[in-house]
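hey m, so remember when u said the tokens were messed up on ur end? i reran from scratch. heres the input so u can diff it against urs
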Amino acid sequence: MKPIGTDSVPVMVSGPPASPVSVGSEPPFIAAAAGRPAAHTPVWFMRQAGRSLPEYRAVRGEGSILDAIKQPDLAAEITLQPVRRYGVDAAVLFSDIVVPAHAVGFGIDVAPGTGPVAEHPIRRPADLDRLRPLSPEDVSYVTDTVDILVNELPKNVPLLAFAGAPFTVGSYLIEGRPSRNYRFTKEMMATQEHLWHELMERLSESAITFIDAQLSHGARAYQLFDSWAGTLSRRDYDRYVAPHSRRVITELRSRHPEVPAIHFGIGCDHLLESIYACGATVLGLDWRTPISDARARIGEDLIVQGNLDPALVLAGTEAALAGTAQVLADNGGHPGHIFNLGHGVVPETNPEVLAAVVNAVHSATRNPAITGMGNANHGDPV
């Protein structure tokens, strides 16, 4: 038992007996995503590559994030930066959920300080003509980035692919910008249901193509971001959203049966059972839902990702480490846990606090029964 942080809760690091699967050389992320014991609890952070890092600001340059994503050498370097700095157990591709829509010429950009903005949003059937099917060639710059990263990452640090879930991407295409009430999105559901489902079907195919391309080039897991699904009632989620997210996950499982899938949304405590039913391997939790509560509701074998409140990271090292200890204690030594924040890293975050969190999680959960792994970046040099 190793306490971490000041006034922290002791964390029991012993777990169930070792899996019959040999995990001595298995990356901690891959082991945990399968519910198998790992050398330590793996850590990565949503938005770990980005404005919180001075090295990111040094290389990023001017213009839209979408311009940077189109430069494979730059996008690969930005993806690698947090792996070098923190020793995280997974690299998440530097990209954006609107890349597929942008790549097919829909007319969407990411405005600094605002987020995705579409000058001509989807409001009527004719608007779908601007959302043609995505092909892998449309995002060749993304797969070129994946190729670079697969060659440069340590062997025990997998690359994570990702895409926006149909609902969240659709909300940007319908609203035209980030929204607080999702007025036009919910209006389309209620008054143009056929159009809604046609849009969701197109975005489902786009997500499948986008993630499939990344996995086919060597990414080893993926996350489906449904960031704003929590704005919906469970009834509306089950009717208008779940069938399409389920289609994405089901189709990708048929193409890549061994690849872990993470499904994540914000404010989704009331939707947990419905999101879990979509079929992902790992359920991402924000900071509002205790891990123990999620397992009590869904099952003790539930594999989770999360869920330190990002605000505690902003509060400084002492608060962040105390919160980290609480998350680990809530997990109770269960092998099916990937440590993350309950949402993305915010730009004002002090990188030294995140480094302390990574070190604390690795130290507190190190499993001496599994040898030959060490920290995630103790492999081939990045």
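this time it looks ok to me. DSSP finds 15 helices and nine strands in the chain. if urs says something different then somethings off w ur setup not the seq
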